[in-house]
Design goal:
The chain has 714 residues and is of the alpha/beta class. The strands form seven sheets. The chain has a six-stranded mixed beta sheet with strand order 11-16-15-14-12-13, sandwiched between helices. Helix 1 (3-13) packs across helix 13 (321-337), helix 6 (114-129) packs parallel to helix 7 (160-175) and helix 7 runs parallel beside helix 9. The chain is globular. Bound molecules: alpha-D-glucopyranose. Alpha-D-glucopyranose is lined by residues 53, 56-58, 93, 137, 190, 269-270, 462.
Amino acid sequence: MNDINKRIEEILSGLTLKEKIGQLNQQETPVDGDAESFKEQVRNGEIGSILMSVGATAGNDAQGAISIDFYNELQRIAVEESRSGIPILFGRDVIHGHRTVFPIPLAMTASFNEELIERSYKDIAEEASNDSIHWTFTPMLDLARDPRWGRIIEGTGEDPYLGSKFAAAAVKGLQGENPADKNRILACAKHFVGYGASEGGRDYHRAEISDYSLNNYYLPAFKSAIDAGVKTVMSAFNDVSGQPVTSSKYYLTEILRNRLGFDGFVVSDYDAIVQLIRQGVAENDADCAELALNAGLDMDMHDKIYIDKLEKLIESGRVSEETLDNAVRRVLRVKLIIGLFENPYCKQEKYDINKHRQDAKEMACESIVLLKNDGVLPLDKSANIGLAGPFVYEKRSLLGSWMLDGKVEETPNMYEAMKAKMSGTIHDVGGTGLSWDSSLKWLYNSDVAVLCLGESWSSTGEHRAVSDISLLPEQKLLIEKAKSTGKKVVGVLFCGRPIEMQGIADNFDALIYAWHGGSEVANAVADIICGDAVPSGRMPMTAVRKATHIPMYYNVTSSGRPVNCYYGENAGECYIDSLATPYYPFGYGLSYTEFSYGDIKCENKEISLQDLKNGKKFSISIDVKNIGGFNGKETVQLYIHDKLASMMRPIKELKAYKKVLINKNETANIDFEIGFEDLGFYMPNGEYVVEKGEIEIFIGENCLTQRKITIKVK
Ligand code: GLC
């Protein structure tokens, strides 16, 4: 038995039944007043983990600053005064930043830059670990296609491959090679599984997902996180096809552990266990505890169901002590892996916050998507600019939802950033909100209008689904008024979700999607507006024309009759009353320069299935030339289409991409190695298959590319 297992058995054998259950009990930070009773629970070994926030929707409500002394004191009581001496695991939602706030995860996904994503989460872990945090509840890997869902901002959009790349990068950035290392923290892959498929985008709502769709769309990112070494998973609130995940042995044990190979522990979402009563599968708290623990749900977040009910369930034999012991073993293993017994206390060390802000600015720059540009951008620094809109002075919303520890006052706004960057006149219309001067004289005296618009951070995040994904009417009016002057109008949209574009994008001469891009996003936008940075972000999910077209996603199957229309094959037929092709498709984004693609090259277009299984790959390449006037980064995307298979396959599936800097007038040769793991799909029973036959390979600038070759698996 190796050392860690030996250590686990030594600890476990010394625990009382109540102390074992205590390791599965996570309680939130006590608010003023009941700290003493809380300390007594810690002293009695009844609390194994502390949620360092207050409330069921911690991302929506201001959280108090972290008191390192307070948490070290709780830890001291656990280590020195409790009978078992087992340290407490401190967890907090450090979703996309701590003191330095990075762009929301959906925006970071738009960077298509996993090195930068990993570096961002390394910075985040360094800041969080120096603030008593051992464990964060991120990355959120819920594939989602419905921008009405408030939590769309926390995830990685509509593609399983892109989500898988994000998952691995975030886990590695947070945990490093060894999560016990200084400045690293535990990651948590969440919410397992299917939360992003909540019907209507209505948070927490039911999800209807076949095993076929689950295996090919919703599981890959979790598999990637597990392969990258994630040690905790959070179960989802929702049900999948009639089974609440919280009490599902199928999802939490058969799939998550037995099929995907997860060996860490599962924590419930907040109060999710007691919610089984409302979901109609448990009659009372004891039933909830029995169902959840037997399903494979190890740690109970906040509702006290385990600490209150498990002792009697074990003593009565309704739940076996072996089941309890296995859950405790998984929690103890993680505490040992991160070195918690050796280093239980937070010892603050200095870190280079300026470097973190530089990284946050770099990430903001690479996340920003240039959606439209008639040539008006970049502006000369001496331009005479009319700056207007509610986001000229806005700071808080730039940081997005799930921002618990950033400093709004340390966040430059657009006025400050543009004043610092541009040398020309900036006519700002003063005030905040929409107090713009309807006479528009600020615009008549300018060369160009820069409208800073967007959605409030509080319209996004948990429990923040919206039925209207457009801009507010007064913002749309401002666009129309500005356009009526005949001046050039540049739009900068600070949104969390991809909003509906019809009637909005049409009216801009240039459109920058800056997302809720974090502490440095205004400076990043200013750099892009004047050409000090060249935009390179690409859409991580479809931007629809109208919300009524949702769900609309690129990796869709074709029907027997034209009803899909994503690819324009029957644009006029999909709805008789509207054009329902995407406004901006998956993978889309512009640069200031232009890239010209050569022909796809692939010497050996036929490989036998056996050779593929033995590791042989298709070597595919393409030349991409920068024929424009700026050095710029291009994200060369490779998609497949399995034309004939035993199950219906999507018209396009992203299987590889490379983001490369190509200087003007230079050509880059981009090569891909495509093998067995890229060309197959999962059957409903979870079996991965590659089938013989022709497969189309597309390479281009976004999912609509028609540049293709055909390879064959013999
Ligand atoms: C919330 C969220 C979850 C978060 C947890 C702790 O309800 O669903 O993502 O990590 O509770 O705040």
